[in-house]
């Protein structure tokens, strides 16, 4: 009998025992140690390593409630979805996700490659570090994992089977509430608005019925458009980087949804990095350099995504009607319009919702934080309301620059 024959929530010492018993990574005479390193909203993450060698592993376990709040009762099956998604994405975008060693359906845990020699991208961006290869890497990841899991390329029966396998109702409900609903009305009273900004938020978000109508349309698009296997939570806290490499992690929110959801999340989180630099960098030349890199990266993400999308579409599309002249242009335009809208939704929900980002809450000066938050929400509203006008990277950046100028007057 093994203590791991029945589910329980592990401690660091349990994770050591688990690694020794269940994983074939370590030698029998290994001296294992462990640290709980998770700082996310949902799961428990342990790093186990051998003191006598350079071998290590990450063990990620799902609980029955979210760490952010016991209000979220969740099935630990999300860990299965994550493990299967990482393996699938590893086939589609080799080298851009960590290697999965084992998924344990009893303990609801996934053992995977340790990326300790990388840095969480959000942390690096808060230090205003620049990653020239990021746009190239992330667009390859997104095009390969999104387009190649769509009806454009898959046999329709195979794709419908994947939709069933990746149905993820509990985590989708979190997105439906925290991204598409609560930031615009706070009907569950779970929003966490910076107090000096509360009246402005009530006016600009809660009282803007034109905005809420557009968000309602977007929510029903999210609910019904099983377009591709999306990551579902693709932000800079779910990406490891170093100078030469990028690894996407944490696809536990994965399900079949609109492609633009992933692309829009990336754009929004680059804007968070921009406003943080704008608010916190004292050296003007260094601030201009970093913000210019962010702006160029936003342009590159959109434009490289488009170029790679069209290339794969032309070369590998299987659906006969998708090859009709003009269809690929129409299809991609819908993805880009969704991208703009989702970027807006992410900008709003991270400012007023219960799941904030350090880019914003680490801004100490009240006036600087107010400016950063209002820039984000103002950009967001334009992205959402005018989403059909966004087709090029420059257009996304132009809105950022226009809003920056308005708040500088």
Automatic annotation (TrEMBL):
This enzyme's EC code(s): 2.7.1.100
Record keywords, A-Z: ATP-binding, Kinase, Nucleotide-binding, Transferase
GO biological process: methionine biosynthetic process
Signal peptide: none
A Pfam family of this chain: APH
Enzyme class: transferase
Domain Aminoglycoside phosphotransferase: from-to ranges: 225-272
GO molecular-function term, one example from the UniProt record: ATP binding
Subunit organization: Homodimer.
Family classification: Belongs to the methylthioribose kinase family.
Protein name stated in the entry: S-methyl-5-thioribose kinase
Lineage, uppermost ranks: Bacteria, Bacillati, Bacillota, Clostridia, Eubacteriales
């Amino acid at each position: 009998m093994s203590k791991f024959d029945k589910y329980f929530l592990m401690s660091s010492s349990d994770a050591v025992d688990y690694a020794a018993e269940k994983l074939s990574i370590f030698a029998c005479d290994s001296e294992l140690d462990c640290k709980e390193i998770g700082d996310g909203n949902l799961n428990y993450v342990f790093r186990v390593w051998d003191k006598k060698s350079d071998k290590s592993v990450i063990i990620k376990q799902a609980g029955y409630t979210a760490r952010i709040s016991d209000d979220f009762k969740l099935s630990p099956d999300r860990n299965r979805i994550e493990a299967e998604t990482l393996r699938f994405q590893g086939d589609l975008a080799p080298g851009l996700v960590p290697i999965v060693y084992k998924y344990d359906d009893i303990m609801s845990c996934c053992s995977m490659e340790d990326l300790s020699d990388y840095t969480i991208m959000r942390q690096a961006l808060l230090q205003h570090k620049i990653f020239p290869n990021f746009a190239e890497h992330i667009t390859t990841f997104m095009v390969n994992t999104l387009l190649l899991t769509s009806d454009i390329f898959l046999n329709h029966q195979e794709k419908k089977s994947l939709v069933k396998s990746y149905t993820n109702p509990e985590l989708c409900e979190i997105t439906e509430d925290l991204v598409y609903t609560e930031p615009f009305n706070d009907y569950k009273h779970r929003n966490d608005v910076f107090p000096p900004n509360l009246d402005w938020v009530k006016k600009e978000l809660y009282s803007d019925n034109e905005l809420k109508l557009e968000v309602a349309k977007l929510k029903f698009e999210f609910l019904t458009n099983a377009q591709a296997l999306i990551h579902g939570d693709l932000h800079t806290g779910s990406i490891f980087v170093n100078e030469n490499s990028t690894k996407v992690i944490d696809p536990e929110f994965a399900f079949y949804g609109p492609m633009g959801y992933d692309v829009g999340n990336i754009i929004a989180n680059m804007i968070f990095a921009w406003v943080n630099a704008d608010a916190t960098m004292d050296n003007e030349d260094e601030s201009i350099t970093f913000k210019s890199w962010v702006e160029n990266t936003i342009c590159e993400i959109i434009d490289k995504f488009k170029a790679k999308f069209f290339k794969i579409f032309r070369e590998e599309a299987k659906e006969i009607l998708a090859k009709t002249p003009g269809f690929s242009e129409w299809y991609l335009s819908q993805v880009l319009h969704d991208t703009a809208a989702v970027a807006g939704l992410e900008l709003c929900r991270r400012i007023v919702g219960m799941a904030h980002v350090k880019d914003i809450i680490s801004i100490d000066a009240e006036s600087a934080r107010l400016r950063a938050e209002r820039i984000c929400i103002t950009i967001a509203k334009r992205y959402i309301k005018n989403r059909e006008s966004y087709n090029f990277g420059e257009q996304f950046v132009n809105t950022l620059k226009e809003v920056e100028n308005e708040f500088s007057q």
